[in-house]
Write a structure and sequence with these properties.
2 copies of one chain form a homodimer. By secondary structure, chain A is α+β, with helices and mostly antiparallel strands. The first copy, chain A, folds into 2 domains: 20-88, Winged helix-like DNA-binding domain superfamily/Winged helix DNA-binding domain (Arc Repressor Mutant, subunit A, Orthogonal Bundle); 90-144, Dna Ligase, domain 1. Chain A contains 5 helices and 6 strands, in the order αβααββββαβα. Chain A has helices at residues 23-34, 41-51, 56-68, 109-112, 137-141, and strands at residues 39-40, 72-76, 82-86, 93-96, 102-104, 123-136. Chain A has a 3-stranded antiparallel sheet. Chain A has a 3-stranded mixed sheet with strand order 5-4-6. In chain A, strand 2 and strand 3 (82-86) form a beta hairpin. The longest helix of chain A has 13 residues, at 56-68. The first copy, chain A, starts with 22 loop residues before the first helix and ends with a helix. Chains A and B meet through strand 2, helix 4 and strand 6 of A and strand 2, helix 4 and strand 6 of B. Strand 6 (123-136) of chain A pairs antiparallel with strand 6 (123-136) of chain B, so a sheet runs across the interface. The structure holds a DNA duplex.
DNA sequence: GTTATTGCAAACAATTTGCACCCAC
DNA sequence: GTGGGTGCAAATTGTTTGCAATAAC
């Protein structure tokens, strides 16, 4: 989804980004923050509609907005769907290629290294994703 | 880019079973290896069918097998489709949240760090994914 | 009043699956 | 001959989009 709106100009100047989240967007963010684990959009939708009336499309659109604001990050689960979590959780996982189970890393290696990212281009980093793949203990043995 | 074959990679190759790849699986892997960039399954399919007769489903199935073997890794592109690349390419990207463009990192930070991943569980790591998200230079200015 | 957001449902697109055929061993 | 791999097409499913109603400012 490329953005070719170069000709479009905003009359209002957003010199400092104030998120300005709508109620629904805030609700989405709130649910993500109170969850201990990453949620798929559909799961999120399920939780939200217990609290209020909301449409699935709105959830997706809210997630898109939140990602653009750098407030939410996503990783893709083994089954193809995207899993979303608030970025302040610098969480990373080890995922087993065999059984698909994920194990939470108790420490983020990248966080340490003061982000010495050598860039060929200027870039403002909001957050990062990091995931390790391999085999968990049980699966190393009973390999099909 | 330089070849640092002296330093040991933190990524472990699968030591169990021989790959035993079928012709098609090998073809898929070969194409991925000769590509400079990650490919979606559909792109892969397009390239492959120029060389030989193959079905789309086979491409997907081959990718699944190769991932299970620890030979191929996938990241999800901004538009939702999965992008696949051979794991020996320790490539990582910066992706702009605004325009969706990806920039190749010229160096893997995780690769350096002797990867003392403190695990709460025993786990055999094959490879990792790492991706940074934020705003590219142009998009930092024309922020919506 | 003007503009952005929402909800619904239809539309999309990537991926998966059922099943018959075929190849490798 | 048996079992797995393959291809095709249909079926699934996560996600996006068009548009009218609605809420925000």
């Amino acid at each position: 989804m490329k953005n070719d709106s170069l000709s479009q100009k905003n009359t209002t100047r957003p010199t400092h980004h104030l998120p300005h989240l709508t109620r629904n967007q805030q609700a989405v963010l709130a649910v993500l923050r109170q969850q201990s684990d990453a949620l798929s959009a559909q799961e999120l939708y399920g939780v939200l509609r217990e609290q209020q009336a909301i449409g699935l499309a709105t959830v997706y659109r809210a997630l898109e907005t939140l990602k653009l604001q750098g407030l939410v990050q996503s990783r893709s689960g083994t089954n193809g769907e995207a899993l979303h979590s608030p970025i302040e959780q610098d969480r990373h996982y080890l995922t087993c290629l065999h059984c698909g189970q994920s194990f939470l890393l108790d420490h983020c290696p990248v966080h340490d290294l003061a982000v010495q990212v050598h860039l060929s281009v200027p870039f403002k980093i909001y957050y990062h994703t990091l995931e390790f793949f391999g085999l968990c203990e049980p699966c190393t043995h009973q390999r099909s």
